[in-house]
Structures
1.
Amino acid sequence: MVKEQLTDTWKTISTTGRGNLPYSGFTLIELIVVLGIMTLTLALFAHLTANFLAATRLKESAKDIASMLRLARRLAITERGECRVVFDSKGGRYWIEGEKGDILEKKHSLQRNVVFANPYLGKDGEKDGIVEFDSPDDSALSFYPQGTAETGSLYLYDGDTRKWYTLTLTSSTGNVKLYPEKH
């Protein structure tokens, strides 16, 4: 008797796939709906992450340049000589040079898609986003042994987010300020 019941159940399972068992498993539609929801969630997460990383790249580039400018000021004071932070606007690099042109701090690079950009503020001959107010446009900002500096501003632009960052340098104190916009 038990053997007959097992045989009947086996025949039913092999022909219908379920037998006399209650409903179990998921339908194809349920699986497609769940996969669709997961796909939308992942797409939204990827988009938000990309925006966050792009904003972080611009801010980190600005902070790194500000650190380099502050280091150049300290070096000018401690070495008792002029130090310059030189900017290669086409290559997106910057470094510190001493009075004789020797490199005191290795070359750093801007983050991906961040560039020195012209803020279009009306200064004649300005093309590279490095605006120097005290001297001709030599793509460098200088610091002096007294702690003073050449007055100027740097403009960074991120092509992905279309946002600006401005770094300004005060001549009397050599102070560096960061602004998260075109200032």
2.
Amino acid sequence: MRSPNARIVLDYFYGRDVLFWFIGTAVLSVWFVFHDPRFDNRALLLGVLLPDAVDAVWGGARGLHSVSGSVVILAIVMVATAGRKPIRRRLLAVPIGTFLHLIFDGAFNSTKVFWWPVTGLSFDGDRLPIVERGMVNLALEILGIVMCVFAWRRFGLSDPARRREFVTTGSLHE
């Protein structure tokens, strides 16, 4: 018989609350690609966590685990911010985050969901990829924690002024 604490740990990693994997992969991917200290990483984090948060409410993989969901978010940002470059720059981080979520979640493994609505309108029985992976989430979360620690150190977030800058502007720089 397992202890209650062991059950809590197993439940955590068996398809729920995978956070560090998405945070670490998104922040480091964007940094290595763009190297832009003005990029709003707060909006990126919102975008990378949004698909699981929204689709979990519906009980499984839905529109935000499809490429169409990210394209719609991108289109909304582009139309809503036409002619307003500073806010567009900041908000583009949200669809970038949702696209990265699809990659790092392996959402493309479910053709039916990933290409929705092209492959049909039904979502019957489609589980979130984090649920499908089961205990693999433990390894991914450990890797995510390692990436977050690396990012914390690389961006000097032990310094209160840098943390405050991140919280107020979303900026990370070396």
